[in-house]
């Protein structure tokens, strides 16, 4: 595959191309204008000379002869028609041009352009009485002037091209240098560096690219720090039940625990810690599958009222065990919807698990189902700080902020709930609840 050309080469080439096109168009237009202007100037000069010579017609013959000599030295041929009809002065070509221009025909105009022997001649005729005077000039003089002017224009355009090339190189360096440095920073980021920043200099678009790369570097650093803290937290969460399971298992294996009631208590502890481990691992796997091909939504027609009633029965019992009042508010009629009932139940269980962990005995938990597409979970716990509701569904954020106040959480429950709702095509929000704690409201897509 052919390697792409550097941006410096492209910018320089583009500047030269634009300057070359401008020079070509300008040169063609200028050459035509200059040629026409030169001919008009020559014509006007010839007319002025004819007027001056005609004014000296009746003056002294000496002055007229001197004027004729000056004109001949300038390449202008005077041709005279005497009153007796004789044509004198000028060379053969000039005489022929004067006659064709109407020197002997009073009805003809005062000027003409004659083509003779491949030459273009300009003729100015002036009449006085029965005599006439013609001045014949070569249009090649105008062409010579035009060529000189065109040559000067070509020189100027050549200098313009040179300056365009220099300007293109300067512009290319101005654009390419910060882009190259930004690319170097990006490559270093790809190798794991997060402490480098691209220079925000140069044209506005280049500055925006550098700023975007810098924002990406900051976001990556923050994300990796969160992931590091999350992994540390998960490691701690895994270590705690594993330690308990191992300790009680060793006690049973070594015969340290022999009393029947102690054996039952140790077995129940192992069972509960194993269930906790299973729940944590399941949540981690589901969180890892979100957004991948492994995450599936099996949407079928379901009655959400039945799904929520089953969940309410389970969670009412769990809340009663710890002295937390549980209230379930739902319409009496079936609520039909096309969705994945298992994922909806998973979201509901995750929100209720989070609410029960934060709600003290005597404070309520309320589940509300409305119009088949919206449900909410509210609790009477301490709630969250106002600024924390916006980051409630980011992994580990709330756990790191409330680690010493609300033990027992894994930091992934709400993040998993948010990802599941997004996978279902819905939305989830967090805010303050009327009961004093937090409220999490889920809006699912309507009936299809």
Task: Please give a handful of descriptors for the protein shown.
alpha+beta; five-stranded mixed sheet; membrane; HATPase_dom; Beta-Lactamase; Heat Shock Protein 90; two-component regulatory system; five-stranded antiparallel sheet; Helix Hairpins
Write the layout of secondary structure elements.
Elements: H1 7-55, H2 61-73, E1 77-81, E2 87-88, H3 92-100, E3 111-116, E4 119-128, E5 131-138, H4 139-190, H5 204-253, H6 260-289, E6 300-303, H7 304-321, E7 326-329, E8 336-339, H8 341-358, E9 365-370, E10 374-379, H9 397-401, H10 413-423, E11 427-432, E12 438-443
Parallel strand pairs: 7-9
Antiparallel strand pairs: 1-2, 1-5, 3-4, 4-5, 6-8, 9-10, 10-12, 11-12
Pfam family, one: HAMP
Main location: membrane
InterPro entries: 2C_sensor_his_kinase, HAMP_dom, HATPase_C_sf, HATPase_dom, His_kinase_dom, HisK_dim/P_dom, HisK_dim/P_sf, Sig_transdc_His_kin-like_C
Descriptive account of the structure:
- The chain has 448 residues and is of the alpha+beta class.
- The chain has 10 helices and 12 strands.
- The strands form 3 sheets. The protein has a 5-stranded antiparallel sheet, with helices on both faces. The chain has a 5-stranded mixed sheet with strand order 7-9-10-12-11, with helices on one face. The protein has a two-stranded antiparallel ribbon with strand order 6-8.
- The chain is rod-shaped.
